Amino acid sequence: MVSVNNNGHSTALIQVRGLNKTYRRGGEEIQVLQGLNLDVDKGDFVAFMGPSGSGKTTLLNLLGGLDVPTAGTISVAGDEITHMSSGKLTEWRARHVGFVFQMYNLIPVLTAYQNVELPLLLTRLSGTERRQHVEAALSIVGLADRTHHFPRQLSGGQEQRVAIARAIVSDPTFLLCDEPTGDLDRKSADEIMALVTELVDKHAKTVLMVTHDPVVATRAQTVLHLEKGVLVEAGKPRQDVAVGGGA
Amino acid sequence: MKFFQLIKANLFRKKVRLLLTLGSFAVALFLFAFLVVVKEAFSRGVDIAGADRLVVVNRIGLIQVMPISYRDKIAAIPGVKAVTHDHWFGGVYQDEKNFFPQFAIDVENHRLVYPEFIVPDVQWKNFVKDQQGAIAGGQTAKRFGWKVGDRIPVKNSLYGPTKSWEFNLDGIYHTEKSGGDESQFWLQWKYFDENVPSVMKSTAGWYILRLDSPDDAVRVAKTIDETFANSSSETKTETESAFAAGFAKQFGNIEFLILSIGSVVFFTLLLVTGNTMAISVRERTGELAVLKAIGFKDRSVLFFVMAESVAIALVGGLLGLGLAILAIPVVGTALNGLLPNLILSRSALVVGIGFALAVGAASGLLPGIGAMRLRVVNALRRV
């Protein structure tokens, strides 16, 4: 169950309390996030929406341990990540976070198989075990027959599938998707969102997604709006789409 | 090893650039090998000089001679074990391009002073008995296809009108020491003395003496120079290694020259490869950020960049040194004895590889540190 109002103790998988993020640009201070609270349970699928510059990506970066907050705390599965050293945070990301980026961000000189294998190179798995995991991940995203293709030999939708396989191959605690369909046509976007939904429904993955697209947001169980650095619960996604006027 | 695929894939990302960078390393190491070989050729005389040998030359210069009577006076100085003398012959065999050093030697004492030159006893005896006899180094004999018993005509214009001196090749010498000089050609001083103009008769070009102990070197050298002070032929006595070093310096300061060229090559190479690695890292900022995002540590990213740089340096370096190994003997032959033996020693190869690895590591370090310090959030924003 997603909540944005709880500022006390909870048993949620992800707990965000009093999160602030301030940037300094020139002599000016820009407050991007202001005292933000958030609880996300295991298996939740949350979409963050909001206008450009509202702090969606900043929030995702903080949740993924790529950036540090100015104030406040983030706890994931009992680990408080806001005070971890850079090295510890890197180790934590490898174990707990799967990233899916808008531009796929695959390594162009590696095949689909090798791209998906990358996070496993950081584990103690043997070559055989790594192969089993990679093949399973590629099979889940429907690309078992594209293992030896390079990114340039794949369509945009297929590239994003490989990126999703890379994100799930090490079975992370949660997935962070930053505009995963932002660079895709509608058909490919629908296919990707069907895949993400399947990961939540069938594989009980926890997904936090940033999107501009209200249609994409309908796939989420909960849609949250970021407005002036504060999270506002927008209710059920289908209502959100209705209010927003559709795609 | 599990990162090998990633490093290999990144190495072959831009094949033309990879080839050019490998080429620049190969050319630099090829040049480096040549410079070292030339330097070693000039300094080999110093390296293999006997620690217990002194050389006595005319104080005015090497081309000025000294009376043969000095030999007995030098031999009488306490601490001197044996004395011999040489004279530069300077003839031409068939063509002026066929240079090799020729010396008129003192057959009675030469072997006592130079035990490292090995001549079979039978050949040596024949040489001593034969006034027109000659002994050639193994390298020179091989170069001209000479065999014992061959008649060797050598033209000479240094001592009177040009005339052909005929020699019988009685023997071939080899050296005990690795890198020893096997290019010399020896004739008998007596035969030489009988055939030179009167002004040159009963003279020696330089004396070489062997000491009872190297510890006596300073004392004996001082005594010799004092003995002949204020004479018509004052002497300058020094250790054989100092003499060889002084001889090499006549060609100029080879070591400085080589060091200067080597330094220019080194820094040019460093700039070229450093720039290439920097461009390569800059092109991959987004990819490196993704690697860091998914859990690769800063030091892993540094390792990847350094590994690429060092791998290029190693392969390019080995290529250049391999080419040098093949080319140096060919060049040595083409030089026709103008330079001493060109030998690419194992130590030079090791230094070359070390040099390549050092340049590779140094050129990868700065871009590697830049990649290591990359902030994921900033880098991803630029993608």
Architecture overview:
The complex is a heterodimer of chains A (247) and B (383). With 247 residues, chain A is α/β, with parallel strands linked by helices. Chain A has one domain: Rossmann fold. Helices cover 32% and strands 25% of the residues of chain A. Chain A is built from eight helices and ten strands. In chain A, the strands form two sheets. Chain A has a six-stranded mixed β-sheet, sandwiched between helices. Chain A has a four-stranded antiparallel β-sheet with strand order 2-1-4-5, with helices on one face. In chain A, helix 6 (186-201) links the parallel strand 7 (174-178) and strand 8. Chain A starts with 13 loop residues before the first strand and ends with a helix. Residues 238-247 of chain A have low confidence and may be disordered. Chain B contains 14 helices and twelve strands. The model of chain B has no long low-confidence stretch (mean pLDDT 88). Chain B has two domains: 4-45 and 253-382, no CATH class; 60-233, no CATH class. Chain B has 383 residues and is α+β, with helices and mostly antiparallel strands. In chain B, 54% of the residues lie in helices and 17% in strands. Chain B has helices at residues 4-11, 15-48, 70-75, 110-113, 121-129, 138-144, 189-195, 217-227, 240-249, 254-283, 285-293, 298-334, 346-372, 376-382, and strands at 53-58, 66-67, 80-88, 102-105, 117-118, 133-137, 151-156, 163-175, 185-188, 203-204, 206-211, 235-239. In chain B, the strands form two sheets. In chain B, strands 1, 3, 4, 5, 6, 7, 8, 9, 11 and 12 form a ten-stranded mixed β-sheet that branches. In chain B, strands 2-10 form a two-stranded antiparallel ribbon. At the A-B interface, helix 2 of A face helix 1, helix 11 and helix 14 of B.
